[in-house]
Amino acid sequence: MKLKNQTIDLGLSGYDELFMTEQERADTRKPKVEELPLSELTPFMDHPFKVKNDAEMAELMKSIADAGVLSPALARPKEGGGYELISGHRRLAACKALGMDTMPVIVRKLTDEEAVITMVDSNLQREHILPSEKAFAYKMKMDALRHQGKTLGQDGPKWSVSEIAENTSDSERQIKRYIRLTNLIPEILQMVDDGRIALTPAVELSYLQPSEQEMLFSIMDCDEVTPSLSQAQRLRRMSEEQRFTDSAVMQLMSEVKGNQVEYVKVPVDKLRSYFRPDTSMKQMTETLVKAMDFYNKHLERQRRDRDAR
Asked: Which pLDDT band, with edges at 50, 70 and 90, does 283 fall under?
């Protein structure tokens, strides 16, 4: 069998390297992988990517238990000792869960801006990323690029969304949408992560004031409803026109969406005359259904009584 030409690295110094300084030699060599104690590794500050005990974590733990950590993590030295983890948070959690003492890590000296950019870029390569993770990751990177540009005395849009889009599959418009999600209160953002609210309606809701979002969430949570894109756009207009009131939001959210084929439309104000003021739409609906069921049973008894005569 004919073998292709291969270059075998025996770890020997080349001719040029013999005349390099120690600093130059260190800069040109491949990054050194160190086995660092897990106790010396701390998570990246304000790390936006969640570490969950899910099926992927179980699979990662099995892989590490069988073959060890195949890909080293990345960290930077901390002032006063220890290391700040930049990438490899899930590997760190898996190693801790398996009772390991050390893990392979590449250590690099990075500025705060370089660390943020590297952390975001490395974690965005994951297969499954929540909308909230992308939202805060993109915002962190944009802020880091902006600060980095000011530090270097750059006047141009070095920190612009267009530069971020160059290294991701998301378009500039999509990145801006994700960044808008950082304006949502945690409860509504969780609904986006859970898939209960789509990205585009969520962007519209991000323009509501925090107090308005809290009011909306209370109604959504109580009545188990979520806004369509059209409803979210109207909620935004209500906020801009200062018409965002509890009754107005309940009226809007009580509307039946287009994918519900058969329905009976009853004005909320007329329904509320039969219920306490704090009764939710869900409770009113359930009560009406029970009342109709009771009414039908009453009619059935009357029919049986007539037939028995």
From this structure: confident
